Amino acid sequence: MSTKRQVKYVFVTGGVLSGIGKGITAASIGNILKSRGFKVNIQKCDPYLNIDAGTLNPGEHGECFVTYDGAETDLDLGHYERFMEVQLNQSSSLMSGKVLNKVIADERAGKYLGKTVQIIPHVTNAIQTGIRQSAEGFDVHIVEIGGTVGDYESLSFIEAIRELGLSVGTENSVFVHVVYLPFLGASRELKTKPAQNAVRELRSLGIMPDILVARSESEAPDGIIKKLSMFSGVNRESIVLLPNAETIYEVPLTLEERGIGRVISNKLKLGNKKPNLKEWRKIVKRAKDKTVAHIKVGVIAKYLNNQDTYLSVFEALSSATWSQGYQVEISWIEAEKITDENIGDMLSNVDGIVVPGGFGSRGVEGKITAAKYALEHKIPYIGLCLGLQVAVIAAARMSGISDANSTENDPTTLNPVVHTMEDQKGKEATGGTMRLGNYECIIQPKTQTAKVYKNKKVTERHRHRYECNNKYRDKYEQWGIRIAGLSPDGNLVEMIEAIDHPFFLAAQSHPEFNSSPNKPQPMFYGFVKTLINR
What we know:
With 534 residues, this protein is an alpha/beta fold. It folds into two domains: 8-283, 3-Layer(aba) Sandwich (Rossmann fold), CATH 3.40.50; 289-533, Class I glutamine amidotransferase (GATase) domain (Rossmann fold, 3-Layer(aba) Sandwich). A nine-stranded mixed beta sheet has the order 13-12-14-15-23-22-21-18-19, with helices on both faces. The chain has a seven-stranded parallel beta sheet with strand order 5-2-6-1-7-10-11, with helices on both faces. It has a three-stranded mixed beta sheet with strand order 16-17-20, covered by helices on one side. The radius of gyration is 25 Å and the shape is globular. The mean pLDDT is 93.
């Protein structure tokens, strides 16, 4: 009788402060383990009391990444997919709200047989169940715990992974703790005390880290390792200093060069497989090459206080540019400040523009003006989700329908060229109800889009509630645009393009989510190619 193979676990936690790079660290560990030929999965456990990331403010939390099966998740899942060249699913995002919903539903259904429902063991067991289910079928499962050790809301997750590590055994679990080394300008030195305290906090909760990743803004002296080892109890060979890198894609190579891949493999008894990072080194070389020419792209944005809101857009542009031997320079243009009078000046220094997705009416008129200017002046343009909708509105207005609009921006408009999808009516105020995840698109023959994708059928990820109003479809060509892609049943406009334009493509989907450093997304690749040729 065969026995089920034990999954190996790598748990990644963080201390000192948030935003220090736990997600990049976790993704990089996945990269170097996958490069050894292991079947690796990865998961984000987030202590927020939300069901998912769909209702989180992008200005505070960055973009909402969408998986192929429609999970609205933290942006770290985008890092995971790009670094590991995988497609993750619903199980790779576990938030407190989802866990608590399950526990309460089970209690209401009488599944606890009259027992008092408590954080320990019921909530912690539910977390462990979510982790184990996501790990099934893999050699190694990486789990990143969001937030900072010591936060009240993260305690149940920390306890859950402590218990899980204990139950699978020390040879099947590794704990990686990411800490921060602040630089004190007065004494001109890096301070290790916050990192020491962060390790002490983790140890007080019953977890002794096996690996310490010490982040800093600049290169730290090697003597820091000796000091950290002495006061944290972590072996010197298991401590890696990780200063800011020229590109985040360099981090897997740094971890591998510092021996972290070997340390994890030894701890988990995975053998001495050699990593194959040849292709990854090529990516890093292209990303760091400052000798090549630049293209300038304007991103018409409404969330400028946190550029992580457009993280996948930036990464898709970068990947498409690097693959063609160029670098990209992003110019962030605030949509709310755009007017008919200043749009020419605001776009004077860019080669092309991207109008990304977004919700709400704020800044939309500026995006419509930008789309109109790109149509009139033959400026290469990519429209993503809302970027398609404003392009349709702009084309309609240019043809003389001055009040053309979306019902999202103006519910009373007499010309709703964009309106609520039929199956979305009545759901406007609820989370997790939009058109989410993968949907097929049939690309129309003899279009510029067909030349770009080189395929008759494509699948892209969606996150939207509004769509092009079919009542106006027969007017598109009069407006100077045409349908370039439809849903398989022909009922939904998935892509449009401008007629007689060097490059003006827009999608109702979010193609940026399907881009990776080794596989640039076709729409972005074609856009960049046009800019280079011009």
